[in-house]
Amino acid sequence: MVRVEFLGPIQKAPLQLEITNLSELAEILQEDEAMRAWLENCAVAVNDMLVSSLDVELKDGDRVALLPPVCGG
Amino acid sequence: MLHLYDGALDVPKILKAWYEEESQSNYGAYIPFVGTVRSEDGIDGLSFDIYEPILESWFLGWQEKAKAKGAIIKMAHSRGDVMLHESSYIAAVFSPKRRVALEFIDAFVEDFKASAPIWKYDLKEGKRLYALERSTAIAGSGLLSQR
Q: In terms of pTM, does the model score above 0.90?
């Protein structure tokens, strides 16, 4: 199982999914009407490392995080 | 050195502590930046969420860049609520000469604004409202909207 977390202002409980790469996650989340706007402006981290490709493979125990636009300071 | 605090920062205490920590380190320049909550748009204050694991690795990267220039960087940030005229952010660079520190603090704060995983909310009329229009999408955002 892969745990998917939605950080900061995204009001969505974490998911536990049987997926093997980020493309599968993209397909699942694109089905969720409330998530579509967030998907366009969120960065993605796998095990706390930001990633830039959907080809990233996922294995049991991995953690994916969605990071919406930031504004520290 | 990265310090996170619940609520507003005690600015004089932190700046003094950092000054004293490095007083014998032979740095010629100490350049702090302090971010303070201003009164605008009827807000009562700001509130912050932080994702610490990625903030720490981001900060570590900047520590390495500072080290390569013979400098060090320190940062403090608030979690939760910070009210008007209180401060939520301090960054400081120590370096042997002023030019490195002046340039470094500028580059550091700009990247902080664009990349550090911290989310800001306006506190207004009892609500906590995400400041989307003042926020910046992290480089590479939108990956999961691709088909």
A: yes
The domain total for chain B is 1
What residue spans of B69-117 are helical by DSSP H?
98-115
Task: Kindly report the number of other CB atoms within 10 A of residue A27's CB atom.
Answer: 12
Residues in A 1-30 with any Cβ partner in B closer than 8 A: 7-9, 22, 25-26, 29-30
Least CB–CB distance from B77: residue in A26, A43, A72:
A72
Closest residue to B53, CB basis, from A41, A48, A71: A48
In terms of residue numbers, what domain contains B77? 2-135
Residue B53: its pLDDT value, please? 97
Domain range enclosing A33: 2-67
Tell me: the pLDDT tens digits for A31-73? 999 999 999 999 999 999 999 999 999 999 999 999 999 999 9
CA dihedral A10, A16, A21, A26 (to 10 degrees): -40
